[in-house]
Amino acid sequence: MRSIVRNTATAQEVQRLRAQMAAIQGRKLDAPPLPTHPALAELLPGGGLRPGSSYAIGGSMSLLFGLLAQPSQTGSWCGVVGMPGFGAEAAEKAGVDLSHLVLIPEPGPRWLAVTATIADVLPVVAVRPPSRAKDAEISRLAARMRERGVVLLVQGPWPQTEAMIDVTDARWSGLGDGYGVLEGRELTVTVTSRRFPVPRSSRMLLPAPDGAIAVRAQPVAPVVDLPMRAVS
Length: 232
Description:
6 helices, ten-stranded mixed sheet, alpha/beta
């Protein structure tokens, strides 16, 4: 009889703790994903950027612009930390609403503390870590993000991410043999997530001739390979 009472009490305690967790995190975890361009939404878990989650992304600035465009256009404030080369004009052409953008290009050695601070007030934060952070600091930031429903986009490796997003096989159009101008870049976007049995990939224009994103619909010619670092 004692063991039954003890087990019942333990089960009640577990339920109580679960209720407390739900009160703290439930609304955030169940919140709908932030809107994303349809070409990217098809690749992402849940069809968008999940509040309270982090994403490791490649070094392409065009990819970052593409991820920030829809949230900023729908009224979500976005912060960019530690990216002095972030081009506001190119971001605007890609669809980012600059009126909902906060730039902190040089956060200094306390970059993680700066990131955590703006995560208290902005729903989307992008950061390029200049150095490796301690596991305990990353865990505290993750807890704060979950509590506030913040999306974190990290240029580079990051532990416990919802997904990793990167681009490969980039080719520019518009250049001929000694003539022409760059018009658009065709590439493959790949999303890897523990929620997928295999990575998801799609060929798209990023940027398209208008600076935004377009699904690869027809051959683009002529094309020429260019180093990734020259166009990111």
